């Protein structure tokens, strides 16, 4: 490789790094910036409970549906162009949401955002695999930490900004990061197109049946189960944990809000540490044991002695979502080929989110029917235990290609 080639590769990796960080930031800030402003928005136009319910429950559905479609989009248009469009849709949705004049406009803008996020969720591990195959752990740390920060930051500053400049500014400012993220992906998409034209090859991966193969592979199912366990506990906690704490531990709503922030904050150190442990030291099963045990102890503590140490139970429960960065790291490590990475990411996330969307709703209905939080907390314990058999499969260190080939021939 000539010096000019090395410079080109280095520039491409720098652009990809900037693009991945801005993409990851936009995927979470777009989702986390709305709910704190419902009261402020409600002063300008009516927000029916049905619309607020849809905005709260549609994200997992969109993540599942558009995560499922992401593999097909990537095959048709290429990785960089699909990323560019997904991020553009997120930016457009953020602008549309900030400009909404009624509840329907707010819902439409949110739907655009969630569609783009659903595709982007799937593509990030594939982007890391393509541009940083030798640094999967490090780059996964970078983007999962970015996601954690962009989940924590918007709710913290949304209301102060709205008080100072209005809710439209508070919502719309996050579009700046999405629109800025378009620049590196425009350059990389053009570069990928030029390289493909020079090599006289199609941008699409060779196989169009790779996603279908995931249904027959234990590792794919194990990753989907792990993703479900992590996201189900997280979404249920964000939806119901404050009410659970108020009803069972006797804390005030203000304290319950602080404890929910503690739950979210626990994910930050996990994002920093877990990818390196998985990628560099291949520590997988112990992390599953820790996550599962913490989930069981946290939900169990809220079940049997909620008022004794609510901060401890919340901290333990907040440890289970360490499985999220573990899954994202494993997607890159348990594949050899680019098309397998996209397909595995799409399978794990779309299936995981698809089942997750029923859990918070079911928890609420079960509580209404029983008048108690006992059964919902038992469900969280069961979900926490599901991670253990999945961890045994993922810890075998087999790629999906290695699982396929002995049974079905060459990949």
Give structural notes.
Helices cover 83% and strands 0% of the residues. The chain has two domains: 3-199, Growth Hormone, Chain: A, CATH 1.20.1250.20; 212-404, Growth Hormone, Chain: A. Helix 1 packs across helix 6, helix 11 (253-265) runs parallel beside helix 14 and helix 17 (358-370) runs antiparallel to helix 18 (374-394). The protein has helices at 3-32, 38-42, 49-77, 79-98, 103-131, 136-165, 167-172, 175-199, 210-213, 218-249, 253-265, 267-281, 285-304, 310-319, 323-333, 338-356, 358-370, 374-394, 400-408. The chain is globular and about 65 Å long. With 411 residues, the chain is mainly α. The chain has 19 helices and no strands.
Keyword list:
411 residues, mainly alpha, Growth Hormone, Chain: A, 2 domains, 83% helix, 0% strand
CATH architecture of the largest domain: Up-down Bundle
* Percent helix range: over 70%
What is the CATH topology assignment of the largest domain? Growth Hormone, Chain: A
| DSSP E strands, number | 0
The radius of gyration computed from the alpha-carbon positions, rounded to a whole number of angstroms, is: 21 Å
Which spans of ≥5 residues are poorly predicted at pLDDT below 50? 201-207
Structural class: mainly alpha
Question: How far is the first residue's CA from the last residue's CA?
Answer: 30 Å
CATH homologous superfamily caption of the largest domain: MFS general substrate transporter like domains
* Percent strand: under 5%
Number of domains: 2
Label the overall shape.
Answer: globular
CATH top level of the largest domain is Mainly Alpha
Strand count, sense and barrel status of the largest sheet are:
none
Number of helices: 19
Q: What number is the mean pLDDT?
A: 87
Q: How are helices and strands ordered from N to C?
A: HHHHHHHHHHHHHHHHHHH
């Amino acid at each position: 490789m000539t010096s000019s080639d090395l410079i080109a590769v280095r520039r491409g990796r720098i652009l990809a790094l900037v693009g991945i960080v801005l993409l990851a930031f936009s995927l979470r800030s777009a989702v986390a910036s709305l709910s704190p402003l419902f009261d402020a928005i409600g002063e300008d136009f009516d927000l029916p409970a049905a619309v607020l319910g849809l905005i709260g429950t549609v994200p997992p559905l969109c993540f599942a549906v558009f995560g499922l479609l992401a593999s097909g989009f990537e095959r048709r248009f290429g990785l960089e162009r699909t990323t560019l469009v997904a991020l553009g849709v997120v930016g457009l949705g953020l602008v549309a949401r900030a400009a909404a004049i009624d509840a329907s406009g707010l819902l439409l803008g949110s739907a655009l955002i969630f569609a783009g996020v659903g595709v982007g969720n799937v593509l990030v591990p594939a982007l890391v695999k393509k541009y940083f195959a030798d640094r999967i752990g490090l780059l996964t740390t970078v983007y999962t930490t970015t996601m954690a920060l962009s989940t924590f930051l918007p709710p913290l500053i949304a209301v102060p900004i709205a008080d100072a400049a209005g809710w439209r500014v508070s919502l719309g400012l996050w579009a700046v990061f999405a629109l800025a993220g378009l620049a590196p992906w425009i350059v990389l998409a053009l570069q990928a197109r030029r390289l493909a034209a020079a090599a006289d090859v199609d941008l699409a991966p060779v196989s169009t049946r790779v996603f279908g193969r995931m249904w027959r592979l234990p590792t794919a199912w194990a990753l989907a189960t792990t993703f479900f366990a992590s996201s189900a506990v997280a979404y249920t906690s964000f939806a119901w944990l404050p009410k659970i704490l108020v009803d069972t531990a006797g804390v005030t709503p203000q304290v319950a809000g602080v404890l929910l922030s503690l739950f979210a904050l626990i994910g930050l150190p996990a994002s920093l540490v877990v990818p390196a442990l998985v990628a560099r030291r291949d520590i997988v099963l112990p992390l599953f044991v820790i996550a599962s045990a913490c989930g069981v102890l946290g939900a169990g503590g809220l079940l049997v002695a909620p008022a004794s140490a609510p901060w401890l139970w919340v901290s333990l429960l907040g440890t289970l979502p360490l499985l999220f960065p573990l899954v994202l790291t494993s997607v890159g490590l348990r594949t050899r080929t680019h098309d397998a990475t996209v397909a595995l990411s799409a399978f794990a996330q779309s299936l995981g989110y698809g089942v997750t969307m029923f859990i918070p709703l079911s928890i609420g209905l079960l509580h209404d029917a029983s008048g108690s939080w006992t059964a919902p907390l038992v469900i969280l314990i069961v979900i926490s235990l599901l991670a253990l058999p999945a961890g045994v499969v993922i810890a075998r260190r087999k790629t999906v290609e290695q699982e396929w080939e002995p049974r079905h021939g060459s990949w």
